[in-house]
Backbone:
């Protein structure tokens, strides 16, 4: 206790030094005076008394020094001195300080920004009680991982598992909401009654689901998300007890969840939407029927994940059909949620780390050049009694200061950069809480700054400490090209820098090329001026295919009469829509084909609207209806695969989409891509009047701006049935951009990091070459005096720098080749060893290197030999 | 040279506390003089040891200081015992007595030996 108090006072003792010093002087002076007066009173003469006092009491300065040591905390005092001195040095040389701080700030900022996202997604615990005990239940089918469980397994586990204290299931869906104001498509979540208690969610209004509501035939009730409650009911408590109709069925509102409650989604199935309405799952406890669920559970106290996995697996085995293999895999829920983005996030963090390393190397180089300029200063300090460790300490304090300033600059950058980053990629980020810079991120930045300070400060500090002082004092180091070993170190740093930057640039180059290739792909349709809207007919209102097609027929008739609409149609699956239905198709007289045949139900106007060419035969007409002979259209890929050398028109095919009715092929249309990254699959088109669907996309080509059609189309649809609102309204160009969005994000992120690395690397080369050129001014002066021409000087300086760049490039290319497996999952249509990219990157670096070396070389060419020689 | 011993560390603090208890508030010079006198001029207190020791005691809260005026009208810093200092004095004094008593037994001629 006392010790702590004393330390506190010593800490305080470091402040208000002037007053303390004055008081100490006064106290000692009065002590001395009293002593002298006593002696005089005892009969001594004043001069002798004074001498006696000084001898007996000991030196004043020594006393003061001992007093000071006790008053403050010596090592802290030294640090303070170093810091003050360091700040003064920074102020005296603002250009140097600014360059170092900016360089570090860029590196630290980029790393921190990405770390902020990494932390929020991968490290921050889920905002539920004891999140580390939550597990997600998957099934390993040998052929792949199944992320869903069947209701039969789930019921068995729920009934018999002892290793899980709670087990819950949830599933996302969509429904058309009617009954309260305007009709709307909403995102629904079906959950077991145990789901909210598992996650510790307590409704802010009303109650949770009851177990008896959570079974088939239970009362239909709903719990609203906070946001939905605010949006549709303006936060009115009277929402409780209201009846919502979801796809035509009534649900009574019994609760509202807190605003903070969110459920993250690994695969962004919800496409950035949050759940609006929750309803009980109504899983059949007997396991009858077949429903897919996503199962999460909480491990019982003391039970390990492995033990629980073994138990659930044992319970699963009796349910596995003979001849099939299936095993339970328990994943940490957070890891499961973040699994989809973990790889790429860590990849970008590593790339940012590379850039930070480049920044460190740069600053180390700056410090090294300054260290040689300060050799004399150090020698003087050493001569005045500063030990080597004291000098190293001072230099490290100075680099620490630089690093901290860089850290602050980086933090400012990260604050802004993180928002940019989140805006870029948030749609695909499975986070529960907003991404923010909190104290843990601050801690990370601080640690990063100190670490970088140590990394870039250590080499120059040790170097300085190793200098032979008397030589430095004599000035022997000046004029010559500097210590050989120091030169070697600086050259090595440049090589490292170039190599690191090359690796990142190659990665970025691959991503950019891959993106450009994807963007340039002809998807097989004309995307401009086309608006698309999804319509999901409520099946309870439109139960039969005939009623469904009738609805779409009516809508299309109205659309074709709408001002500004040039053409309109509808399709079950849009190109680039990601909702393709694959199936098997049988061609008459042949064995069943593979099961990868895409199938789409379309209206006659569809091909015209999207500009998909008809290559042979005829398209659909309104006569291809129920009762008329079945017809189908096929695409070129289909023809290439099944009718490479014969005419396919008139051949008959059947698929389970049309209840295995034979259909004759009436025409061939152009290939359309489902996914820009893949080749178009064989596809078969069916007439919507023969194969009705409840869910279709309307497509309309506008004379002008596609977006402007939206309001008119909505109004036309509402006039037919106001309870069938369209959703997912986007132009075709937007869909195309969205398909490329993840690639674009990857490319821009890595591209900006690579650009940063390139700039920093160029600065590094420039710095080293111009420094060494300036150290060689004397030598160059002699050479010029002896008759060297400008070209000789140029090649002397340029040659040295370019040689380093060349070595760096070679190392970098090798490094990129070794590391490029990492980008393999982000690169499409080219291999990760694409020689053009490598050559291009090498050329870019060569060009940058030449510019960075040429500038100092040009200065060296202008050296006036007389001035250079005289300066010695 | 003069046969005087410098006060050894550790005991100085105790002597300071005892002096302040006996005499009441006192300045540094007075404390030094008093210690020298009580020791029969066997000890010499130079201020190189005294003032850091006073500072340490003050930091630990055993004594407090304030500026005052000495008998012959000189400005001086006066130290006085705090309540914590009084307790510390008791504790230290009894420790010291015990230690010297034990040591005395060791050094005394072994009377009890049979």
Residues:
């Amino acid at each position: 206790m006392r010790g702590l108090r004393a330390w506190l006072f010593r800490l305080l003792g470091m402040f208000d030094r002037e007053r303390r010093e004055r008081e100490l002087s006064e106290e000692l002076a009065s002590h001395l005076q009293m002593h002298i007066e006593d002696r005089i009173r005892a009969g001594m003469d004043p001069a002798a008394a004074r001498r006696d006092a000084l001898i007996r009491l000991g030196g004043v300065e020594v006393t003061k020094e001992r007093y000071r040591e006790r008053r403050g905390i010596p090592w802290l005092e030294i640090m303070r001195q170093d810091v003050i001195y360091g700040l003064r040095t920074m102020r005296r040389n603002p250009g140097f300080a600014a360059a170092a701080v900016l360089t570090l700030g860029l590196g630290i900022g980029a790393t921190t920004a990405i770390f902020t996202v990494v932390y929020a997604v991968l490290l921050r615990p889920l905002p539920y009680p004891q999140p580390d005990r939550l597990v997600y239940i998957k099934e390993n089918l040998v052929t792949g991982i199944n992320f869903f469980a069947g209701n039969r397994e789930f019921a068995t586990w729920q009934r018999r598992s002892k290793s899980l204290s709670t087990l819950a299931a949830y599933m996302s869906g969509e429904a058309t909401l009617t009954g309260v104001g305007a009709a709307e498509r909403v995102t629904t979540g079906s959950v077991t009654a145990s789901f909210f208690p598992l996650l510790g969610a307590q409704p802010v209004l009303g109650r949770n689901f009851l177990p008896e509501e959570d079974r088939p035939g239970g009362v239909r009730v709903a719990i609203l998300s906070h946001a939905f409650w605010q949006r549709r009911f303006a936060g009115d408590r009277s929402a409780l007890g209201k009846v919502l109709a979801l796809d035509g069925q009534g649900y009574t509102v019994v609760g509202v969840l807190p605003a903070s409650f969110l459920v993250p989604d690994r695969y962004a199935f919800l496409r950035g939407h949050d759940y609006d309405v929750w309803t009980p799952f109504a899983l059949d406890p007997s396991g009858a029927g077949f429903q897919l669920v996503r199962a999460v559970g909480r491990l019982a106290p003391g039970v390990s994940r492995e033990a629980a996995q073994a138990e659930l697996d044992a319970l699963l085995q009796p349910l596995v059909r003979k001849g099939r293999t299936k095993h339970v895999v328990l994943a940490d829920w957070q890891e499961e949620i973040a699994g989809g983005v973990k790889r790429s996030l860590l990849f970008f963090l590593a790339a940012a780390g590379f850039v930070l390393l480049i920044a460190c190397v740069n600053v180390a180089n700056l410090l090294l050049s300054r260290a040689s300029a300060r050799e004399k200063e150090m020698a003087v300090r050493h001569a005045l009694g500063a030990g080597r460790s004291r000098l190293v300490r001072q230099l490290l304090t100075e680099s620490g200061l630089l690093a901290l300033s860089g850290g602050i600059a980086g933090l400012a950058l990260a604050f802004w950069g993180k928002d940019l980053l989140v805006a870029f990629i948030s749609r695909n980020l499975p986070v529960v809480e907003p991404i923010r810079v909190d104290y843990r991120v601050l801690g990370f930045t601080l640690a990063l700054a100190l670490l970088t300070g140590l990394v870039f400060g250590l080499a120059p500090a040790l170097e300085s400490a190793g200098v032979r002082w008397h030589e430095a004092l004599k000035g022997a180091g000046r004029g010559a090209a500097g210590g050989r070993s120091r030169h070697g170190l600086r050259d090595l740093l440049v090589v490292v820098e170039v190599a690191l930057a090359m690796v990142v640039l190659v990665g970025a180059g691959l991503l950019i090329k891959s993106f450009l290739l994807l963007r340039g792909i002809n998807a097989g349709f004309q995307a401009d001026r086309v608006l698309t809207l999804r319509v999901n007919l409520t099946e309870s209102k439109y139960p039969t295919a005939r009623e469904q097609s009738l609805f779409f027929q009516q809508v299309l008739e109205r659309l074709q009469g709408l001002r500004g609409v040039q053409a309109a149609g509808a399709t079950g699956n849009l190109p680039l829509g990601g909702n393709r239905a694959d199936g098997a198709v049988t061609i008459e007289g042949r064995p069943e084909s593979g099961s990868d045949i895409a199938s789409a139900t379309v209206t006659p106007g569809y091909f015209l609207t999207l500009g998909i060419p008809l290559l042979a035969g005829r398209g659909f007409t309104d006569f291809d209806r129920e009762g008329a002979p079945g017809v189908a259209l096929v695409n070129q890929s289909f023809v290439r695969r099944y009718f490479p050398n014969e005419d396919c028109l008139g051949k008959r095919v059947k698929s389970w989409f049309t209840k295995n009715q034979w259909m004759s092929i009436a025409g061939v249309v152009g290939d359309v891509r489902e996914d820009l990254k893949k080749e178009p699959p064989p596809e078969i088109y069916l007439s919507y009047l023969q194969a009705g669907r409840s869910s279709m996309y309307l497509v309309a080509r506008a004379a002008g701006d596609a977006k402007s059609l939206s309001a008119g189309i909505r109004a036309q649809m509402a006039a037919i049935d106001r309870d069938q609102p369209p959703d997912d309204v986007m132009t075709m160009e937007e869909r195309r951009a969205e398909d490329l969005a993840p690639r674009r994000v990857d490319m821009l992120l890595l591209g900006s990091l690579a650009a940063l690395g390139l700039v920093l690397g160029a600065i590094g080369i420039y710095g080293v070459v111009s420094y060494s050129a300036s150290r060689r001014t004397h030598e160059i002066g002699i050479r010029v005096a002896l008759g060297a021409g400008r070209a000789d000087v140029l090649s002397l300086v340029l040659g040295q720098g370019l040689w380093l760049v060349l070595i760096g490039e070679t190392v970098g290319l090798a490094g990129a080749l070794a590391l490029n497996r990492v980008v393999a999952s982000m690169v499409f249509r080219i291999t990760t060893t694409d020689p053009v990219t490598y050559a291009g990157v090498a050329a870019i670096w060569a060009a940058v290197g030449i510019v960075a070396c040429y500038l100092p070389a040009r200065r060296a060419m202008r050296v006036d030999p007389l001035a250079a020689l005289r300066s010695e | 040279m003069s046969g005087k011993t410098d006060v050894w560390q550790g005991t100085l603090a105790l002597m300071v506390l005892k002096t302040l208890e006996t005499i009441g508030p006192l300045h540094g010079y007075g404390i030094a003089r008093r210690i020298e006198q009580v020791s029969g001029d066997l000890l010499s207190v130079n201020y190189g040891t005294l003032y850091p020791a006073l500072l340490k005691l003050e930091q630990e809260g055993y004594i407090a200081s304030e500026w005052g005026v000495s008998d012959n009208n000189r400005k001086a810093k006066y130290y006085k015992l705090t309540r914590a200092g009084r307790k510390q004095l008791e504790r230290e004094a009894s420790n010291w007595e015990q230690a010297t008593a034990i040591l005395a037994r060791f050094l005394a001629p072994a009377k009890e030996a049979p």
About this structure: Strands of chain B lie at 5-6, 26-27, 43-44, 63-69, 75-81. The domain at 5-107 of chain B is CATH 1.10.10.10 (Arc Repressor Mutant, subunit A). The radius of gyration of chain B is 17 Å. The helical segments of chain B are 11-23, 28-38, 47-59, 83-107.
